[in-house]
Amino acid sequence: MKISLVPAHGAAIALAAFAAAAPARAQRPDPIGTERRSVIGTAAARVAPAVVSVNVVRRERTAPRNMFEAFALPRGYEQLVEGLGSGFLVTSDGMIVTNQHVVSGAEQIVVTLRDGRDFPARLLGEDPRTDIAVVKIDTTGLPVAPIGRAAALQIGDWVVAIGNPYGYLLGNSEPSVTAGVVSGTGRDILPSGEQSGLYVDMIQTDAAINPGNSGGPLINAAGEVVGVNAFILTQSGGNVGLGFAIPIERAMRVARDLRAQGRVRRGWIGVEIAEPPPRSGSWRRQPGVPVSRVATGGPGERAGLKAGDIVDRVNGQLIRNFLNWEKALLDLAIGDTLRITLRRANESQDVAIAAVEVPSESATRVTFQDLSLVTVTPAIQAERRLLRQQGALVVDAGPESQRMLGLRAGDVILQVNNSSITSAEQFNQVLAYYRGRGALRLFFERGGQIGYADFWGGR
Which residues are marked as active site? Predict the structure, then answer.
């Protein structure tokens, strides 16, 4: 088949000649109408001025790809990697909501406004659990995105995704707009790989979401933000109509905590449930979830829960799998009461558990350069599901520690050279002892695995 391209002006002349020769026809209304298109256009225009590009630079360790690189590259070789995401302004003085995975490990963050202006940004806080982060630029008088309600969405509603997919290939900073419908609500996504976020109650949409859209707003037909675009499910790497957004109510609640205190203060009850094999096919529909462990001295133990109990309902909602359980805990605040219906020896019981502050958040913190550490206790071991009963838990790791030591939040430091680490304070003491004595090897636990990092003791 031969395809010919016709210049736009030539096509216009040909169409004009055809129209002059053709008999006049009565104007008939467009069966679809222009109203639908104008609604989407109007909604996008209302939010687009508040959409920004989030450009980051992070330093990543590079593994050798072949034998030559294995000999040529020095141990621990690192390179600067650029990343791109989206975000949206929620205050006129420059507070921006985006995804945590967009800014994770960033050494430098630059925000580009719709008008092309660039501003250095600082990270106010990040929450890997919900995949929400807040960054701030220093300027005023900025447009603010109107905030709506994800809870009001219904399947089939029009929604619009706005962001900067593949923005590094484009010559201007105007955000891209894609439209679709709400395909589903309340979606719980099975965790996979090294995913740290918990994606529950998600909005599913067939509006195209592509690399660079992460952190941008999903808006309704009224031009209100109802979600934060997070990821797609795909086997090809391209968009296949399975996009997911974090409900705006959760995103804004997390953003307020991050702006006020740099972290999210969650409630804790000290109860763990057993997770069945997720690929077994039965994990979604089991009747209740079994309690695997109750932290000694925690709220759950004080309320009378025991390992082996079966949790059937939480606050009146049926619990059919571990994601239902995690959803109930994700938005639990300190002081909230969790009402649980459980089965024990085929008898049903109702218990009420008052949530307290997460042990790792209330523990005394010790700092070492840009590391923030707490001592592992039985409660913290239960909270973080750690294998080791002793060590120094990393609750925050700055760029230097991530780059030099390979550490990140959630790691547990176990040993430096031949010295075991039993507390956060001891870690400082051990490093002071070894300072200036040459190379050091640091052992740590991450996700149930033991890793190590080598560094120079004179730093």
Answer: 101, 131, 214
